[in-house]
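TASK: fixed-backbone design
INPUT:
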């Protein structure tokens, strides 16, 4: 987890806060002399969640250093089960509402709540109960976190790194359960069974784009492509992305090989500001990636354009000629391809006049030359 900068709109006031290397809610510049305007609650509940909590790292807002927050768990409301957690920071501050993941609790006994703290961008958070009177607040969007404790002395044992370790261990259980359930469905699916470990290609989208796949969608896969015409690719994994790379933060990389040349998508994106703006790869998700655009009606993959360009430039790919393009999907972390997930090949039939190839390729060459 890295340092974090957020800009929040709370009760109409814009507030910036920055974490230290561990915590989500870091110190701000402000009037340090003003006392905390702390919220408080006397609510109780059967799970022992409701109460007044202390942050492991203070949060400064409204020119005041906020060290505590009030949390109320509401199981039932107006005769209906709601399982809602409400968090208030600062007296009179916004009530931020989080909903319990009931399926997760029923399967694993983990109490995990999800919901937004309202910012201009609606920042999403998770709150997990680590122990009696100890919670973990995780910012999903910005990868920041903080521990909350009813008894401030508990923060000596539940420091931020200890809290993070427990949180990540519990989330691994969550991911494992989800992957096991998904794998059972996929093992009964013809598309997955026929293509596990492969990258496949198709000229149009299909619905749904996430598993379980239509059992016969593999019938729409193709083995030849003329650049300039629309094309997408999917990939199916024998093992989940989480198993291949436990520290990759579920990133992926795509490597294209053709003739004597190789184009590594993540290396290309980091090579210049021009390529940094190109289409980013989709995030890894369990056992597949779906509908990655290679060439479309209004845009195209710059990495694919680059591998085509290299082979056209050195004379390997000639008009009306055909060459194989190999595509490999990797789990990616710390600027390294950590593990191969799938690979596949498609024959490239080169026709400079096909579809929108000439206009797109000319635009691409002008941008790099």
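OUTPUT:
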């Amino acid at each position: 987890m890295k340092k974090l900068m957020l800009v929040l709109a709370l009760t109409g006031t814009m507030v910036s806060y920055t974490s230290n290397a561990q915590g989500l809610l870091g110190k701000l510049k402000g009037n340090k002399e003003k006392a905390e305007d702390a919220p408080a609650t006397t609510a109780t509940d059967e799970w022992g969640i409701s109460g007044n909590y202390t942050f492991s790292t203070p949060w400064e807002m409204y020119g005041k250093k906020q060290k505590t927050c009030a949390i109320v768990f509401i199981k039932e409301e107006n005769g209906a089960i709601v399982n809602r957690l409400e968090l208030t920071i600062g007296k009179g501050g916004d009530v931020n509402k989080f909903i319990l993941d009931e399926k997760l609790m029923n399967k694993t006994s983990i109490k995990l709540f999800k919901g937004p703290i309202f910012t201009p961008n609606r920042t999403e958070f998770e709150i997990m109960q680590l122990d009696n009177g100890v919670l973990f607040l995780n910012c999903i969007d910005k990868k920041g976190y903080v521990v909350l404790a009813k008894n401030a002395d508990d923060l000596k044992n539940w420091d931020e790194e200890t809290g993070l370790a427990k949180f990540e261990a519990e989330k691994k259980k969550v991911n494992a359960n989800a992957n096991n359930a998904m794998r059972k469905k996929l093992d009964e699916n013809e598309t997955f069974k026929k293509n596990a470990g492969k990258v496949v290609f198709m000229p149009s989208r299909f619905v749904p784009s996430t598993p379980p796949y239509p059992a016969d969608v593999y019938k729409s896969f193709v083995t030849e492509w003329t650049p300039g015409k629309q094309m997408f690719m999917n990939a199916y994994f024998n093992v989940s992305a989480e198993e291949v790379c436990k520290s990759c933060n579920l990133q992926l990389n795509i490597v294209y090989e053709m003739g004597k040349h190789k184009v590594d998508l993540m290396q290309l994106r980091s090579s210049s500001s021009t390529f940094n703006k190109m289409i980013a790869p989709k995030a890894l998700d369990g056992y597949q990636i779906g509908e990655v655009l290679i060439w479309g009606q209004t845009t195209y993959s710059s990495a694919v354009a680059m591998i085509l360009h290299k082979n056209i430039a050195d004379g390997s790919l000639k008009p009306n000629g055909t060459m194989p393009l190999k595509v490999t999907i990797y789990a990616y972390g710390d600027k390294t391809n950590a593990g191969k997930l799938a690979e596949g090949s498609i024959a490239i039939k080169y026709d400079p006049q096909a579809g929108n190839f000439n206009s797109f390729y000319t635009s691409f060459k002008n941008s790099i030359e």
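COMMENT: Confidence is low (pLDDT under 50) at residues 1-35.
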